[in-house]
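Technical annex, item 7. During the second reporting period the consortium partners agreed on a shared format for inverse folding records so that results from different sites could be compared directly. Each record opens with the tokenized structure and is followed by the designed sequence. A conforming record, contributed by the partner at site C, is shown below for reference.
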């Protein structure tokens, strides 16, 4: 073991005094629960930042995806085509809505849903498509929009990792009928947990807002009324609210976002310089017509490498790592699904290495040197 060993975590939030001060202000305001003044302010700021008409601050991205399908229309007997290479929230949310997820394969270069695979999966039961901005990089929304329009389907953007990304100059969040963001601790901007649903369609936003608070009007509108409005229940809603404590943190994270994007972009460029010549690795790419927010930095390992052994040695040397994300179609929950070879291969060969806005230059150099050493070590050659 080297004397100058470092510990570089895979991900790390960037939070500080500004977030603490914002939380203190919420404590002093007395409104800690959800859908209060801090949430209202955050929703307006976030909608403006992502080019949407309105936003609903939610408990997480999964709840925003569920709400998106409830307001666009998905239920028993319907099929929803979902990008296969993704987090469980995407496929699960289709089942929460009572519909059936049908997975489509992804592009081998940027890992977003392959429009040709979407076309293959359309049946008379298909009602919509959920594209995933893979580790933040937007999918092919021009092609997806054309397919959706031709078949009269709705389109959802799972923008969980995509805060700050753009596609053809338009921000992630403005690329589909509804978009869902995550503010989990591993994402680019975070309140620990949290999410948002955004749309250009004010009526969809209003409907989602109603459903995210048990299907009744929010307490704040009743609190500000001079008479005594008593709501009745005409629709099944949920408690999918973000708390005002989280919203106050998110307002500060939004202010930090340009610096966070800049820091991650610099780290990605540096990794590309330091690892570009390692033959057994495939480095991630960012296409010219979109900007990548680099929520994660995921490298592909050559089949001659034993990924488990690589991960073990990296962790032993203090370099955080993980698999990329999941191939959905192989998961037992979703039943028998046809093979999707690109996604399956990415699920087998991907390895995420440290990526966050707090990486110092010598952290990046340490990670790159260690990856280079480990990949050429005898222990990591597949049997
Ligand atoms: C993280 C993630 C989610 C889930 O976000 P939560 O806020 O934890 O619900 C959904 N989709 C993708 C693509 C993600 O990466």
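Designed sequence (site C submission):
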């Amino acid at each position: 073991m080297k004397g100058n060993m470092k510990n570089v975590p895979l991900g790390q939030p960037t939070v500080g005094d500004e977030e603490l001060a914002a939380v203190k202000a919420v404590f002093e305001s007395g409104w800690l629960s959800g859908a209060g003044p801090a949430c209202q302010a955050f929703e307006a700021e976030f909608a403006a930042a992502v080019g949407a008409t309105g936003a609903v601050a939610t408990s997480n991205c999964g709840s925003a995806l569920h709400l998106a399908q409830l307001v666009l229309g998905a239920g028993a007997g319907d099929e929803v085509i979902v990008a296969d290479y993704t987090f469980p929230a995407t496929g699960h949310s289709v089942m929460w809505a009572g519909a059936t997820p049908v997975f489509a394969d992804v592009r081998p270069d940027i890992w977003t849903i392959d429009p040709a695979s979407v076309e293959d999966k359309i049946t008379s039961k298909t009602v919509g498509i959920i594209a995933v901005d893979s580790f933040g990089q937007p999918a092919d929304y021009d092609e997806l929009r054309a397919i959706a329009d031709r078949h009269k389907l709705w389109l959802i953007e799972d923008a969980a990792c995509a805060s700050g990304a753009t596609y053809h100059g338009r921000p992630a969040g403005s690329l589909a009928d509804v978009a869902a963001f995550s503010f989990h601790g591993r994402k680019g901007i975070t309140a620990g947990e949290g999410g948002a649903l955004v749309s250009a369609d004010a009526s969809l936003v209003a409907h989602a807002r109603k459903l995210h608070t048990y299907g009744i009007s929010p307490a704040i509108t009743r609190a500000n009324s001079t008479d005594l409005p008593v709501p009745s229940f005409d629709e099944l809603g949920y408690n999918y609210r973000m708390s005002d404590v989280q919203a106050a943190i998110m307002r500060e994270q939004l202010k930090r976002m340009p610096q966070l994007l800049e820091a991650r972009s610099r780290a990605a460029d540096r990794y590309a310089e330091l690892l570009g010549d390692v033959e057994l690795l495939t480095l991630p790419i960012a296409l010219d017509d979109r900007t990548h927010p680099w929520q994660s930095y995921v490298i592909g390992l050559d089949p001659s490498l034993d990924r488990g052994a690589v991960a073990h040695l990296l962790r032993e040397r203090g370099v955080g790592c993980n698999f990329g994300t999941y191939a959905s179609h192989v998961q037992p929950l979703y039943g028998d699904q046809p093979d999707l070879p690109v996604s399956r291969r990415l699920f087998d060969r991907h390895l995420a290495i440290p990526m966050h806005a707090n990486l110092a230059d010598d952290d990046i150099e340490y990670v790159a040197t260690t990856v280079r050493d480990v990949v050429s070590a005898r222990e990591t050659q597949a049997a």
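The pocket of pyridoxal-5'-phosphate is lined by residues 60-62, 86-87, 89-90, 132, 158, 160-161, 182, 184, 195 (CB under 6 Å). The radius of gyration is 21 Å. All partners now use this format for quarterly exchanges.
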